[in-house]
Amino acid sequence: xxxxxxxxxxxxxxxxxxxxxxxxxxxxxxxxxxxxxxxxxxxxxxxxxxxxxxxxxxxxxxxxxxxxxxxxxxxxxxxxxxxxxxxxxxxxxxxxxxxxxxxxxxxxxxxxxxxxxxxxxxxxxxxxxxxxxxxxxxxxxxxxxxxxxxxxxxxxxxxxxxxxxxxxxxxxxxxxxxxx
Length: 180
Description:
This protein is mainly β. The protein has helices at residues 32-37, 167-170, and strands spanning 2-5, 12-15, 18-21, 24-27, 46-53, 57-63, 71-77, 79-86, 97-103, 109-112, 116-122, 126-133, 142-144.
């Protein structure tokens, strides 16, 4: 298993060791001790899962203030383009984004620390997206940034005229209008 840094501090990619044989495969998707040894000390309290079809774009979402959430995200079926945007105002990477393809095949996971907006676009016919959170969801603390904000200039590597986005996500403010 390996942990890789990204250009954005504290945003970490995890690639588990996968053991394959004629029966299939086995891998450890999370081990608190291993993650702590890698410097990640999140105490996860909630697991979520979503199923979507090709072209569904969810995000960019975050929880603010005392209800901010760190997330450990992965795909259990299909493939997505996963995007995280650094909203930590004291970060040297403030306003920068990072994207990675997560799939059931590559089994990569992304640790998204508190202080980030997060979203993903489904690239396969269907995808199941699962994630752990270190804080509970709070509607009063939810926020978001429009996925196609020109200030951020995220390259979704997809025709954005073909994406399916919720009305709620279409109404999100741009990066400069966010309230963290």
